[in-house]
Amino acid sequence: MENLLADWWRELLGVDAVGLDDDFFDLGGHSLIAVRLVSKIKKAYKLDFGLSVLFEARTIRKLADLIRRTSALLKQLKSRQPSRNGVQSSDSTEWHSRAFISDLRTRRKCS
Description:
By secondary structure, the protein is an all-alpha fold. The protein has a single domain, classed as ACP-like (Non-ribosomal Peptide Synthetase Peptidyl Carrier Protein, Chain A), CATH 1.10.1200. It is 66% helix and 0% strand. The protein has helices spanning 2-13, 31-45, 53-56, 60-80, 90-110. The protein is globular and about 45 Å long.
């Protein structure tokens, strides 16, 4: 996952090298590039993160960790949630992604 994220950062930011702890914005990232990156994450990992995720997980290491934790939580929630007519709703998945991010923000503020 980290390698794929690094490839995307190099491509989108136009840099030759990216480290796991390099800050997206320090490397020249801005909102337009962030939109493209979040779109790639959504397609690859089926997660609907908003742009604000890059302000909270500004490095590849933190972003990969957030993707892993969110994916794991969604997997747990899906296994517990009965589907409608045998089909899992993508709206439900999006809601759970947003709820998880909101919960993370709340926990950070309380820490």
